[in-house]
Amino acid sequence: MADIQQLKDIVTQVRRDIVRQVHAVNSGHPGGSLGCAEFIVTLYNEIMDHNPDFSMDGVNEDLFFLSNGHISPVYYSVLARAGYFPVEELNTFRKLNTRLQGHPTTHEGLPGIRIASGSLGQGMSVAIGAALAKKLNNDDKTVFSLHGDGELQEGQIWEAAMYASANHVDNLIATIDVNGQQIDGSTDAVLSLGDLKNKFEAFGWEVLTIEKGNDIEAVVNGVREAISLSRKRKPICILLHTEMGNGVDFMMGSHKWHGVAPNDEQLESALAQNPETLGDY
Ligand SMILES: [Mg+2]
Predict the structure, then answer these.
(1) Among residues 1, 36, 59, 191, which one has the fewest Cβ atoms lying within 10 Å of its Cβ?
(2) What CATH number has the domain bearing residue 122?
């Protein structure tokens, strides 16, 4: 088990990895990646029982499915830092024939990746299938998924949400990155999501909120609480409140860094705010 300072050090290095990957190829999605760094670092370094000696089936392991696949920079960094593949491979992000495609795919065989994602709305359905398979196999591990809040505008999410509660998929913890932003503006301006807690509860889910989704202790405690609420015949939803671009001051508080790379000067500023902790790739 990692202590809080160790987790913070990983988060800081992951932020560096995110902005360096995106800067190197002048493309990719830094905003949501930075906002979800604490959550994904917590899952892989504190919560999940998982094996970097990767097997696609993940039998007797906790599983994580990234549904909002465009935040691949944070996912690749966390997987590499957890030992799934060499950290130097982060150098190949978004290059031709790389295993680190802009949106994760299984085709390239990158350890840690179990689904292609990027087409939004699909990951919850996959996570439900995996959770049901675990039940059939008497595998008592947990399935986690992460979704953008803008992603909830996809209808498939709500079909999946209805299915999960009707079938008592209570070994699933689906987390929504509630940053209030999506590619074209605030979620309120594009298509308001309304009251998400009431919506998921109306669909038969147990819902808990993590107000400070960029506070590592709050995330650890919130996810642990979610696990304690599982196995009670209801799927679990975490509403994780984050800030897009968290940890890089000029990227925070706006949708404008959803899918824009920093220039050389901006990269230097971002790195200065996040000193090297584990060694750059
Ligand atoms: Mg969002």
Answers:
(1) 1
(2) 3.40.50.970
- Strands 172-178, 185-186: pairing kind: unpaired
Please count the other Cβ atoms lying within 10 Å of the Cβ belonging to residue 243.
18
- 254 Cα–ligand 1 center, Å: 11
List, in order, residues 6 or more apart from 153 with CB less than 8 Å away.
190, 191, 193
Contact criterion met (CB below 8 Å) for 138 and 203? no
Whether residue 85 lies inside any domain: the answer is: yes
For strand 143-148 and strand 172-178, is the pairing parallel, antiparallel, or unpaired? Answer: parallel
pLDDT at 2: 72
Residue 243 in any domain: the answer is yes
- The structural domain count of the chain equals 1
Residue appearing with tokens 């979800």 = 36
Rounded distance from Cα 243 to ligand 1 centre (Å):
9
Domain range enclosing 72:
4-272
- Residues 217-225, mean pLDDT to the nearest whole number: 98
List CB-based neighbours of ion ligand 1 within 5 Å: 148-150, 179, 181-182
CA of 152 to the centre of ligand 1 (A): 9
138 in any annotated domain: yes
Q: Are 241 and 197 in contact (CB under 8 A)?
A: no
For residue 192, report the distance from its CA to the centre of ligand 1, in Å: 12
Cβ contact 27:87 at 8 Å: no
